[in-house]
């Protein structure tokens, strides 16, 4: 018999499980004055805990959101925003038990997908999550300016902290986007984000809003870090961008024009951007911009495979029969005929086989079938079938989430 139980947490257990999560990530417990403004964002609902007696030893947290899929449709998604196990209880099956319980809870709640940001790349594949989007880190060194031909007719204004807290959530929602991988940010997402980065007890980030011909259409959250020291007193600051959201390319260009105009800055550092964002092409000297890193971003888990496959659109190719394996959620197992006209379950012979984590990697259009087959993730397919899969699942632009949680 196990010496721990896995169950939903209760309201009085919110604080202790939040502290447990912070400690598991090598942080300090949150002080009382910071817990108050954030408490409502750490609701008991959607949280699965592991307990030894009354003591929490593990936590797997989530909150509801929606995911934009290829074609512009949106599906209900569980955002897994914190998973941790107490250091003296690791390697004892606690994580597996929590993830199993959480996934079945997602099924009961009607989620089509779940997503997370993986602290380690080797952990979550065994629970059916696959790396479904990527993001890039850019560094633009000064002096840098936009090319004269770049269209950016709007203007930018700085907000006070109170103005930012009152303005940005609605602006993010209004900006929207049909890009696959984008997430809604529910009300409970914002208080923690604001408190850590804009609150008087948190970071020193500032917010600038871009206004185009049709009104506010983008914003950037950033901070500057002093780099000068005794041996280099003239060294400029580093401008570090945490969040940049824009409704279209002109707003993106306008925000970059603003960032590059800030005085006494040595470089602009922007993490978590779309891999296909053409930063260097915007510049008079494209060599001032460097892509310093590309990393996995949103890890996706298809909770309801038939629902997920039916929710997106497909390119013009002959249908393909895919046999999907899912060791944790057996209702997802089976063969699916996927084509431009839709998706149906079938008893036809399979053209290829794959696990549910690999299907998640294909789902938003991030990966092509050939490399996945080379890696042994897709089996049984010939070159023609792999080309059909690429046409069916491919997207015009790379998927991107742009929201950390």
Task: Output the radius of gyration.
Answer: 23 Å
**Could you describe the largest sheet, including whether it forms a barrel?**
7 strands, mixed
Residue windows where pLDDT falls under 50 for at least 5 positions: none
What class do helices, strands and sheet pairing give?
A: alpha+beta
Assembly type of the chains comes to single chain
What is the CA-CA span between the terminal residues? 35 Å
Total DSSP helices: 11
Please name the CATH architecture of the largest domain: 3-Layer(aba) Sandwich
Compute the average pLDDT: 95
Q: What name does the CATH topology of the largest domain carry?
A: Aminopeptidase
CATH superfamily of the largest domain: Gcn5-related N-acetyltransferase (GNAT)
Helix content: 25-40%
Q: Strand portion, in percent?
A: 25-35%
Number of domains: 3
Compute the number of strand runs.
Answer: 19
Tell me the name of the CATH class of the largest domain: Alpha Beta
Folded structure, characterized:
The protein is built from eleven helices and 19 strands. With 405 residues, it is of the alpha+beta class. It has three domains: 107 residues, 3-Layer(aba) Sandwich (Aminopeptidase); 161 residues, 3-Layer(aba) Sandwich (Aminopeptidase), CATH 3.40.630.30; 89 residues, SCP2 sterol-binding domain (Nonspecific Lipid-transfer Protein, Chain A, 2-Layer Sandwich), CATH 3.30.1050.10. The chain has a seven-stranded mixed β-sheet, sandwiched between helices. A seven-stranded mixed β-sheet has the order 8-9-10-11-12-7-13, with helices on both faces. The longest helix has 16 residues. The relative contact order is 0.15. The mean pLDDT is 95.
């Amino acid at each position: 018999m196990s010496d721990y139980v896995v169950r939903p947490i209760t309201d009085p257990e919110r604080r202790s499980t939040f502290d447990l999560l912070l400690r598991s990530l090598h942080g300090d417990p949150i002080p009382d004055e910071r817990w108050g403004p954030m408490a409502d964002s750490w609701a008991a609902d959607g949280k699965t805990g592991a307990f030894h007696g009354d003591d929490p030893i593990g936590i797997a947290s989530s909150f509801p959101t929606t995911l934009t899929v290829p074609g512009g449709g949106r599906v209900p998604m569980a955002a897994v925003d914190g998973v941790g196990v107490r250091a003296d209880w690791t390697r004892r099956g606690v994580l597996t038990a929590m993830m199993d319980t959480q996934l079945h809870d997602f099924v009961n709640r009607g989620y089509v997908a779940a997503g997370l940001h993986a602290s380690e790349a080797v952990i979550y594949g065994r629970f059916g999550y696959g790396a479904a989007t990527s993001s890039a880190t850019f560094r633009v060194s000064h002096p840098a300016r936009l090319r004269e031909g770049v269209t950016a007719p709007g203007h930018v204004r700085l907000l006070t902290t109170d103005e930012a807290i009152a303005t940005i959530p609605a602006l993010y929602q209004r900006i929207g986007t049909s890009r696959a991988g984008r997430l809604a940010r529910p009300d409970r997402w914002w208080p923690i984000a604001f408190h850590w980065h804009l609150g008087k007890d948190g970071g020193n980030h500032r917010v600038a809003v871009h206004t185009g011909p049709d009104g506010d259409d983008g914003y950037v959250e950033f901070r500057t870090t002093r780099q000068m020291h005794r041996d280099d007193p003239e060294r400029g600051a580093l401008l570090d961008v945490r969040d940049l959201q824009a409704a279209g390319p002109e707003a993106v260009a306008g925000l970059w024009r603003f960032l590059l105009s800030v005085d006494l800055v040595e470089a602009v550092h922007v993490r978590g951007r779309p891999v296909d964002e053409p930063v260097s092409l915007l510049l008079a000297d494209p060599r001032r911009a460097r892509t310093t890193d590309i990393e996995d971003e949103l890890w996706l888990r298809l909770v309801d495979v038939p629902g997920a496959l039916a929710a997106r659109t497909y390119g013009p190719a002959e249908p393909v029969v895919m046999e999907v394996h899912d060791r944790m959620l057996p209702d997802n197992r089976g063969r699916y005929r996927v084509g431009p006209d839709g998706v149906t379950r079938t008893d036809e012979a399979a053209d290829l086989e794959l696990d549910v984590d690999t299907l998640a990697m294909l789902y938003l259009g991030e990966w092509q079938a050939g490399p996945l087959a080379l890696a042994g993730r897709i089996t049984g397919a010939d070159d023609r079938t792999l080309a059909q899969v690429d046409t069916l699942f491919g997207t015009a632009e790379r998927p991107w989430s742009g929201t950390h949680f």
